[in-house]
Design goal:
Elements: E1 71-73, E2 76-89, E3 95-101, E4 110-113, E5 117-124, E6 133-135, E7 156-161, E8 168-173, H1 180-185, E9 189-195, E10 210-218, E11 236-239, E12 242-243, E13 246-250, E14 253-260, E15 266-270, E16 276-281, E17 284-292, E18 294-298, E19 302-308, E20 317-322, E21 327-336, E22 359-368, E23 375-378, E24 390-393, E25 397-404, E26 413-417, E27 423-427, E28 442-445, E29 450-456, E30 462-468, H2 471-475, E31 479-485
């Protein structure tokens, strides 16, 4: 059974609209454990004074630890990772209480391999229920981290990941309903990389030159503790858990795996006009490199980029800036030279063919502000774990028309589908955006926007979620589920 914990206050609605109390979701009306709170949903600028005072580029960006399997045998790697509280070094000179996978903020990177299975045993050492969703993973329903399928305190759960999909940058995070937003915000997130032997011939940068970077925003109080309040007061941007760090690089090519673990934010990343080449998206490599001077990276999205530092002299400093906040994120310091036999070929990995779609559906994300409480809705309904919203035949190909139903309030959403990757066919009736390239599992839906996506549902049966990945929104019910049937 789902052991629902208290839902903490989530801020107050602002923007000159209204103040609405939070009450229990209709599907959970009999649950006395959820207190009243308030939710800041209307976008606005962060209040002055909420950015942590740090000296820019005074701390080196750490690289997350790589999880080591306890055992590797018979085509399987076995990992054990505790879910536990810890105190982390985020702001200089301050220890910040966080929730962690494995004791580190951020969690360890799991490096899997296409065709080789992984079993990850998560041991819950918190005083509250939690669970784990492999975001972007093609896994059986029992291993997907269903929002109601939690690990109670003191218990453990083994998740089986077959890694049957092509190479990709995925991530894992808590998905326990009503607590997913706070748990991820407080640290329950980590990267999961699937390395693919079929891509080795491309000679992309690897080893020490293949670097994960997890980006997010945060708010801190005067004591350095994380404040779980309004998403619009999270004015301190972190790269691998540090504010405005520097990272020394050699004068050669690097592959950076960028992941946004911010729960409600869109980065617009640039290098002051320096070109970067995007080579991968949520579901793996693009068909061809995409030259960019600005990368748009929404909540839960991934982008693999290559930056070639060989054109710069030793001592050059290159700053990655976020145009959304107008602040520096990270500084690359060219400090040495190194040999480099890597490359970025003109052809990477062709996308799989798209079968003809046999079903077309509409999905609308919105809030109900007028029934006494802000409640998240998908197609007019709040999440009910006992209801299947779509029945999908295994092996079928479908087109989903996804729309933002909150344009009048200026509220953006994101859309995430579990189980499968999809292709973006159109935006607002026209061509997809540059950030839609490749295989996706998460897309942004700004106000007044629609997206047309196509997916093929293979292999697995059972119930899988689809939802807004602004986790404060899914916490309030903006989630539904599909049943995959024979």
């Amino acid at each position: 059974m789902f052991n629902r914990r208290r839902l903490l206050a989530l801020g107050a609605i602002t923007g000159g609209a209204m103040v609405l109390p939070f009450t229990k979701l209709p599907a959970l009306a009999d649950d006395p454990a959820i207190p009243r709170g308030r939710q800041d949903l209307i976008p606005r600028r962060a209040r002055a004074g909420t950015r942590a005072a740090v000296t820019p580029f005074s701390v080196r960006m750490p690289i997350p630890p790589v999880a080591q399997p306890m055992m590797s045998a018979g085509g399987l790697d076995l990992y054990t990772i505790p879910i536990k509280p810890a105190n982390a070094d985020i702001l200089p000179g301050v220890r910040t209480p966080v929730l962690t996978f494995g004791g580190s903020f951020i969690g360890p990177t799991i490096r899997a391999r296409t065709g080789r299975a992984a079993k990850v045993v998560f041991v819950n050492q918190l005083d509250m229920a939690a669970n784990v969703h492999l975001h972007g993973g093609h896994v059986a329903a029992a291993d997907d981290g269903h929002p109601m399928d939690v690990i109670d305190p003191g218990r453990m759960r083994a998740y089986n990941y077959p890694n049957s999909q092509q190479g990709a940058t995925l991530w894992y995070h808590d998905h326990s309903h009503h607590m997913e937003a706070e748990h991820v915000y407080r640290g329950l997130h980590g990267m999961y990389v699937i390395d693919d032997p079929a891509e080795r011939h491309l000679r992309l940068p690897e080893g020490d030159y293949d670097v994960p970077i997890l980006l997010r925003n945060a708010q801190f109080d005067d004591a350095g503790a994380l404040v779980f309040g309004s998403p619009f007061d999270r004015a301190t941007i972190l790269a691998n858990g540090r504010p405005q760090p520097y990272f020394p690089v050699a004068a050669r090519k690097y592959r950076f795996r960028l992941l946004s673990v911010a729960s409600e934010y869109t980065f617009r990343l640039g290098l002051g006009g320096v070109e970067m080449k995007q080579i991968g998206s949520d579901g793996g490599l693009l068909p061809a490199p995409l030259p960019l001077t600005e990368l748009v990276l929404g909540t839960a999205q991934r982008a693999d980029i290559v930056i070639d530092f060989s054109r710069f002299a030793i001592g050059t400093q290159i700053v990655m800036t976020d145009a959304t906040s107008g602040t520096p994120v990270l500084r690359f310091d060219v400090t040495s030279r190194a040999s480099d036999n890597s490359r970025v070929p003109n052809t990477l990995r062709p996308l799989p063919p798209m079968p003809a779609a046999t079903v077309e559906r509409d999905v609308r994300l919105s809030f109900d502000f007028f029934s006494g409480a802000p409640v998240g809705l998908v197609n007019g309904l709040a999440y009910d774990p006992n209801r299947s919203d779509f029945t999908v035949k295994r092996g079928s190909t479908e087109i989903w028309n996804v729309s933002n139903g909150d344009s009048a309030f200026g509220i953006p959403h994101t859309f995430h589908m579990h189980l499968v990757q999809f292709r973006v066919l159109a935006r607002n009736g026209g061509a997809p955006l540059p950030q839609d390239a490749g295989l996706k599992d998460t897309i942004e839906l700004p106000p007044n926007s629609t997206a047309r996506v196509q997916a093929t549902f293979t292999d697995y049966l059972g119930r899988y979620a689809y939802h807004c990945h602004y986790l404060e929104h899914s916490t309030l019910g903006m989630m539904a589920q599909m049943e995959i049937v024979p």
